C-alpha cells in the first residue's frame, strides 16, 4: 500500500513534467493533467516492477530512485498522449 501512495505522490510531479514535454493545449486544465499523471505513474510503476526494471523498495527508502522518476514520467507521458489522441 505504501508503494501505491508513493506512486500517487510521484505522479503529481510526473504529470507536471509530462505536460511540459508534450506540447499542445490541454482543454482539461491542471486537474486533468494531475489525474492523468497519477494514472500514468501508477501504471508505469506497476509495469516497471512486473518486468523487473524497478526493484522492491526497502522500508527505509523514502526518496524515489531515478528509475522510479523515469518510469513515472514515461507512464504519464503515454497516458497524456493517449488522452489527447482519444479527445481528437
TrEMBL record:
Entry keyword set: Cell membrane, Membrane, Transmembrane, Transmembrane helix
UniProt key word Metal-binding: no
Transmembrane segments: 6-22, 29-47, 67-86
Pfam families: Transgly_assoc
InterPro entries, sorted: Transgly_assoc
Broad class of the protein's primary localization: membrane
Membrane topology note: Multi-pass membrane protein
Location within or outside the cell: Cell membrane
Family from the record: Belongs to the UPF0410 family.
Name under which the protein is recorded: GlsB/YeaQ/YmgE family stress response membrane protein
Species name: Luteolibacter arcticus
Amino acid at each position: 500500500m505504501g508503494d501505491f501512495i508513493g506512486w500517487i505522490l510521484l505522479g503529481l510531479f510526473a504529470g507536471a513534467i509530462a505536460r511540459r514535454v508534450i506540447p499542445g493545449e490541454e482543454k482539461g486544465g491542471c486537474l486533468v493533467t494531475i489525474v492523468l499523471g497519477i494514472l500514468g505513474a501508477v501504471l508505469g510503476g506497476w509495469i516497471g516492477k512486473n518486468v523487473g526494471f524497478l526493484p522492491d523498495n526497502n522500508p527505509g527508502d523514502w526518496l524515489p530512485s531515478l528509475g522510479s522518476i523515469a518510469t513515472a514520467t514515461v507512464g504519464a507521458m503515454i497516458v497524456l498522449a493517449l488522452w489527447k489522441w482519444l479527445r481528437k
